[in-house]
Model the fold of this input.
Amino acid sequence: MKAPFLEQLRNKVLIADGAMGTLLYSYGVDHCNEELNLSHPEDVLRVHEQYIAAGADVIQTNTYGANYVKLARYGLQEQVKAINTAAVRLAKQAAGDDVYVLGTIGGLRGIKQDISLDEIKRSFREQLYIFLMEGVDAILLETYYDFEELQAVVKIAKNECELPVIAEVSMHEVGVLQNGYSLQQAFEELELLGADVVGVNCRMGPFHMLNALKQVPIPKKALLSVYPNASLPQVEEGRYSYAEEFQYFAEIAVELKQQGVHLLGGCCGTTPRHIQAIVERLQDRTPVTVKELVVKRAERVIEQTTTESPLLQKVRQETTVLVELDPPKHLNTDRFYQGIEALHKAGADALTLADNPLASPRVGNDAVAAIIKTRYGANPLVHLTCRDRNLIGLQSHLMGLHELGVQDLLAITGDPAKIGDFPGAASVYDLSSLELIELIKQNNRGLSFSGKSLERPTRFSVGAAFNPNYRHMEASIKRLEKKVAAGADYFITQPVFGIEQLHALAAAAKRVDKPFFVGIMPLLSSRNAEFLHHEVPGIRVPDDTRERMRQAGEDPQKALKVGMEITKELLAEALQLFNGIYLITPFLRYELSIELMDYITSRKQEESYDQLHI
Done:
């Protein structure tokens, strides 16, 4: 009869198993690993048995992604109980009376953050209760990049069961978490929450994990665990593979033990041969209780400065006008820059530059922003979509915009690639617009996405999009509130074409204490109005507005006159409700935006005159 898991772990370094997915992948499995607990239990059992034969004292259930959220990707969300139950029974069948079984629950947020804590908690409890009913020896929480998520589930596990809890973080950078915490700080906070074992797993090979642990003292109460990847992955003919340096892995495992590790296993890319090499190499299983720390080079202290741009400061106090002029789709840019110069001279507070709108390639707005700052002295507001750049590209792009002196950004999801000029192109969407806002705000704290210091903070003011044209305004407002929580400083709206829409927007804006720039776009013709209403996503032109444009007839000049009359009526009302006005220039016809800016100026002068003579 084996001793209780935690008691045994205190007295002896235990060797855990390695990757489940790596072996299943080698068998030709390339879909939902957790579903194999039901459809191919013999394969899962064989993996467990191979690790035990290699000398593993501890194995984990094949349940890393066996939660409602991840199983829903495969239409298996109703199979959570069956898949987890089968997983525990297979692991216990292989373990017998001598090997410990850990019930594994993986992190949900990973790189993507737009899943609520409430949803995470519901999913976690569902898996946890199955493990309790089936009788695992301990709970293993692995691959948690988001520390807030890990804190939440550790609290639940410690409140609702008496099993030992192993809490493992994952790092993008050596010794630092995604939120900027040091590894030591993370371990200390997990100890305070009651985690019995704290550690690291995934993302890094043994060398980098060793360097990270060298900077961390042995925890005061909790024990220490580590599950390194075999190495960094390489891609060969479309398949991922890892180096098979078994002896190297085992040699560093000995050094990891000297850092005070009590539980030592493997993550991605590791196999029974890695575990066997550790078992053969690690003859002395006596835990180390004292070690000498490697002092980490002190990083520069980043001075926090205000990030509010002059544009944001102004719109809080008085009427402020943005004008959008989309960069050209071609390299004949003369008229575009003529428009930029004219709009700047006319008094635009900022010129907004779209990021390949409607998924059609245009001259890069970062290059345009640099030109209009240096050549014309204008203030660019740069749109940044999640569609065209992966996380690496977004982080790099933000650093580049900072170096260009750009301070005002609009973070948006971006129209899917399939609707644009290159329908075969892939949409990236590593981040949602909410996550992009959070990333920009993290950069303002001097941290990259990985948590590594940028050594200087960025100074971005970040806007978010708001669409008042959806029928279900309450759903739009909930999305609005989430963007505020993510850190949005102000909002820019889709164009509004009706007085009633303006008032509905004003009511929604009162729900959050943030400035709004209301979108105003002149209609050029009845056909233009119908196209916008019926074919452009997120646009709604009221029936009475479209009827007025129809009655204007086919004459272009008459139709434009009516369109500008409608726009000025909207502007007159908008100026009573909002400080921020966002003029959207159609088809490079910047003279229309200049006329509307002149109208705004005249309205402001009239108001000032009226106030003086009250």
